[in-house]
Amino acid sequence: MPFPLRFGANYVPAEGWFYSWLDFSADAARRDLADLAGIGLDHIRIFPVWPWIQPNRALIRQRGVDDVLALIDIAAEFGLDVCVDLLQGHLSSFDFLPSWVLTWHRRSLFTDRDVRDGLAAYVDRLAREVATRDNVFAVTLGNEVDNLFPANGTTPDASSAWAAELVEVARAAAPRLLVLHSLYDAAWYDPGHPFHPADTVGLGDLTTVHSWVFNGVSALDGPLGPATVSHADYLVELAAATSADPARPVWLQEVGAPAPDVPAADAPAFVRGMLDLVTANPALYGVTWWCSHDLDRSLADFPEREYDLGLFTVDHRIKPATRELAAVIAEHRRTGGARQGDGPGRRPALVCEADLAAEPGRRGEVAPGSPFHAEWVRLRRSGPVAIVTKARSADTAHLEARGIDTVLTQA
C-alpha cells in the first residue's frame, strides 16, 4: 500500500549546537523550528544528550526530561512531528558517554550487564515520557550507535542482543510509537564490522539508512556524478533487498551535501538529482536532512565538514540547496507523492550474489566502487533499478510485492 513520503530535518540548534541542552531556551528553539516549518518539513529528529539526563546509573534527571518534552511541545506549535533519538551517544564526531562507563568504571555499553540494565531504565523512562505527546511518532535507540565501537568492545552476537533487548524495552514503554535501530554505513559495507545488516532490517519497525558520500563514493565520479547522486537510492535498495519482508519501509534518516565532496555551488543540483532518484523508490518511507542549522565556527575541534551542513546558517539565512529541497517538497505535495511502484509502473532488478543478512562477511562485494555497485550505477542511469538477492530472484511473490518485472544478472 503506498504511503506519502515524509520530509524532515535532523534538528541541530543554531545557538550552541547540542550544548544548548545544558541551558535550554524555548525562544531559541521556536526561532529554529519556524525556519524548518517555513520550508514545508513535516518532522524533526531530536537528540537529547544521554549523560546529561542520566549522569549516574541510578539517577535520571526530571529537569532534563522536561526540556525534551518542552522541545516536543514547541515542535507541535509549528505542526512538526518528532522522532526522539534516545542514546546520544555519538554526534558529529564526538562521543557523549556518562562517567559511570568511563575511567575507573570503564565497561562496554554493549556487553556489561550493569550498563545494559542502566540503559534499559533510561530507554524505558524517556520512551514513556515522550509517548505522552501526540506529535511524537518514533524513537530511535541512538544516533549511529555502531560509531561507539571500538571504544566499547562488542561482538556480532552481543551487538544484536543489545539492540534487540532495548527495542523490546522501548516497545513495551511506548507501544504506539515506531521503534528503530540506527547504524551508519559500515554496517552495510565493512565485512568485519560487528553490527550486521540482518539487525538493521530485522530489528525495529522499519529500516533506517544514512547516506554520506564522503565514504568514498564522491571520489568515484565527483559531486554530481551518477555514483554520488544515486548513493542514497543504492542504500535504500540494499536495505529493501536484504529484508525478508518485501513491504518493510526504509527511512533515509540522514542525508546531506558535505563539503568539499559536494561544493556549495553544486549543492542545489545534488539535492535535486539525489531526491529525484531516491523519491522514486517504492520502499522509501521518508527523507530527513542532516542537518537543520550550521555549526557556529566559534566552537572548536569539529571536523571541517561539520560546520556547514545546515539547511540554514547560524543566523537563520536560507541556503540555495535548501530552496531546492523546499521546491522538491512542494512538488511532491502537489502531485500527492506518486512514485515508481505505486501504480502500473514496474522496474528491473539486478541480482546480488551476496545475501548480506546471511553472509555479512561478503559486504565488501557491494561497497562503493565494487563491480556490483558499478553495474547498478550504470543501469540506474536509465531508470529505477531494484536489487534482489539470488535466493529471492525466482520468488515471484517477492518480485511482485516489490514491483520487479525483470531480473538482470551482473555482466
UniProtKB/TrEMBL annotation:
The keyword Hydrolase applies. It comes from the Bacteria. Keywords: Hydrolase. InterPro entries: GH. This is Glycosyl hydrolase. It comes from Nonomuraea spiralis. The lineage of its organism: Bacteria, Bacillati, Actinomycetota, Actinomycetes, Streptosporangiales. One of its GO terms (molecular function) is hydrolase activity.
